[in-house]
Amino acid sequence: MMETVLSAASSAVAIRPPVASSSLSSSSSSSAPALCGSASLSSSMALSTPFLGSPSSFITRPLAEILRDMNKRVPDKVLKVKNDNGVSLKYIPWYHANRMLSFYAPGWSGEIRSITFAADSSTVSVVYRVTIRGSDGEAWRESSGTASVSDTQFGDPVQKAEGMAFRRACARFGLGLYLYHEEEVL
Fold it and tell me: How many helices (H) and strands (E) does the chain have?
């Protein structure tokens, strides 16, 4: 059913190496996620301090601690709600998931593994991989997201599918996982 696969190797998203404080300037803007050192996660999810240490200094915690922290409940004020066929669904916007990863798992990286259009060009699917690094190794999770090509309500369909895949890959590490089964009665 799926036919066209685009190479997405150049679309990789990675944490850039830290910059020395002397090279920081107000005119340098980048879409790369910010690293933090001793910053605290405020209620607005803003990172308050850029990371200025050596590249190896942000790998300080074991994976088990990082995963424990990523399984914590997300503050309700960062959640968004969308209506899907009459059902209200809570979700974490991709930019909040990005900031939470940078806080809980500094040095994480993400990449688009594939972009696939359906044979009839009605949908596009993206596979995204998130890798987190700890003092005792690294772990990665992949997930997919699919969007209708005709649905441009919230932007480009490829970006929509990428955001969905990114959030799902984060959920496989525990970030907001409870949102997928919050209404279930066990």
Answer: 3, 6
* pLDDT tens by residue, 100-144: 999 999 999 999 999 999 999 999 999 999 999 999 999 999 999
| Dist CA 152 CA 1 (whole Å) | 23
| Measured distance CA(32)–CA(12) in Å, rounded | 11
Residue 148 · residue 39 · CB < 8 Å: no
**What is the b/e burial string over 70-90, where b = at least 16 CB atoms within 10 angstroms of the residue's CB?**
beeebeeebeeeeeeeeeeeb
CA 77 to CA 107: how far, in whole Å? Answer: 26
The pair of three-digit structure tokens given for residue 50, joined into one six-digit string: 């850029």
Pairing of strands 109-118, 80-84: unpaired
Q: Across the chain, what does the average pLDDT equal?
A: 74
Q: Of 121, 82, 110, 87, which is closest to residue 175 (Cα–Cα)?
A: 110
End-to-end CA separation in angstroms for the chain: 36
Is 164 strand, coil or helix?
helix
Q: Are 104 and 66 in contact (CB under 8 A)?
A: yes
Phi, psi of 133 (to 5 degrees): -120, 135
Neighbour count for residue 135 (Cβ, 10 Å): 12
Which pair of tokens denotes residue 56?
Answer: 């190896």
